[in-house]
Structures are given as structure tokens and as C-alpha cells.
Specification:
Length: 351
Amino acid sequence: QATSAADMEARLACGLVKGHAYAVTDVRKVRLGHGLLSFFKSEKLDMIRMRNPWGEREWNGPWSDTSEEWQKVSKSEREKMGMTVEDDGEFWMTFEDFCKYFTDIIKCRLINTSYLSIHKTWEEAVLHGAWTRSSDPLKNRSGGCINHKDTFLQNPQYVFDVKKAEDEVLISIQQKPKRTSRKEGKGENLAIGFDIHKVELNRSYRMHTLQQKVASSIYINSRSVFLRTDLKEGRYVIIPTTFDPGHEGEFLLRVFTDVPSDCRELTLDEPPHTCWSGMCGYPQVVSQIHVLAAAGLKNQDSQGGADPYVIIKCEGQKVRSPVQKNTVSPEFDVKGLFYRKKPGQPIIVQV
């Protein structure tokens, strides 16, 4: 790893170049020995093949192209590995040396979204967004990470639903590269990341107070940031951010789930005023109801269990929780948000 500008692209004594990205082209367990002895002894070595994209300057340590270690491997085994002695930028090294000299790994995950595949497929939501500055807090969309609590919720917000009891969710944000516009600076990537918050089941407006954070990505000045997480059924908000407030840039958000997530951006801060607001009234109070759990429910079947769920009702609106299977002490942890025109009317919670 390069720690300064002077370190970048400096060649080490072992032949590797500091601050340089190499591609992994193969990983194998290599059988050592010759003839029948290699089969009975069955000693194997974990090896990895790397390639310098420059097409030259190779590793010259153990198991490099001309090293004596290759005499421990039979000719047929070398042919299986595609071993060549050329200065083509490709070389083998042990996994132990790989861990010693390399500091970071970036993995490319191919995600199958085809409707015609017999293999595991994903539902993909793709949204374009941007971090933009404004002196008006309601219009500012560049609030920085959660360390900046006063401005964090001014960032773009995206809501999505998990519709299964539990689902594996893959989320990626990719920033637009600045290397095409040098006039904006040196073309360096912004440090970016995102947080995921669990919200009310019926939330349709932007968050203005922090809610339960269930997952977060790393923050790094990389072209893209990726997170895989398991989430329970419910509604969630993704907040993509730059690390520091005030930075501007465009990004692409992708959300992969097993079933459609209905992912969309939250753009409104509150219910809009319309021509009907004067006649029908406008919300005066906002109430959040959080039902945590229930206890002492009656058995509803011969096996001594029940499949309870909770309904929260307010002014003709209702929120229904997922069903909790086979329990008389359910843990709901469900929220509802109600914009109330008639605060005097009751809120009903029914299990």
C-alpha cells in the first residue's frame, strides 16, 4: 500500500509496484511432487495467479516464473496451471505471500437479473441521484455522514420495502467519475457511503428525526460502495451521503432484492397543500405509534398457539404488521405514522 504520493508506482525489491492494482486471474491448490508419490503424499499448496495490467514488471519472489520452487511441481501439473515463463505481467505466488504484500481486495459480484434464467435471480431497482448544496435546509441535499447530526437528514432519502419474513438485500452506490472534468479539480473520488434506517410501515415523506439504524456501509473514496445485509419484513430508508457535508456529485443507487422492493426517492417533507385543504382541512398533528410486543394472548388452535398480527387505525388509515407465526407472546416492533386533521379522534391498536 502506498502511503504518500512519492510512494505511488514505486517498485519494490520483490518486483511488485506500490499503490498498484493487480487482477486475480486464477486460484488453485497445486499438488507438489512427481509421479505416483504426488498422489499418495497428496501435499498441496494454495496458490494465486496475478496479473499486472501494464503487461510487464512481475513478482520475482518465491514461485515467480523462473524460481527454483517450480521444480517441486510435475510438468503435467504446470501444464494444467497454464504456467509460462514470459515477461507478460502474469505470475503465480503463494496465498501466504499474497496476504503479506497486498492490503485491499475489490470483488466484482455479477448479479443475475434475467427473467429467463434457471438460476437465482434478483429484482433490481435503479435510481439516479445527486448531492447538491443549498443554503435552505429543506432544499440542501449535501448533509454529510451521520457524524454531522444537524445536517445528516438533509441528504437524499430512498424508501424501499422488504416483503418477505427475511430477505437478503444488496445495495450499491456508484458515483459519477470526475476524471472527465479536470476543471473541477484533480478528478479525485469523493468519500461516500450510506446508512439504512427502519421506519414506519406507511412512511411516504422524508425523515426529519433519526430512527433505528439497521445497517451501514463503509465510507471510502472509491468509485462504488457495496453492502450485503439481511433485513426483516418492513419498510426502510437508505440515506446515501458524502463523508463531509457540502460536497456535490451525482450517483447511481441500485437495490437488489428477491421480490420487487418498490424503491423510490422521498422528495416531499410533508403532505402538500391543495385546493381541497381549505375545505377538508390540513393535518395539525403528526403521531408516531410504535407497538413493541404483546403478551398473554389466548391460544387460538388445538396445538396451543396463535398467529397474531397488530392493526393500528387512525382517521380512516390503518397499518398492519406482518403475521407472527405460532406464538402467544409476539414481538411486533412495528411503527405507524399518521398526519392527523382531527387530533381529538382516538388511535386504535388492535391485536
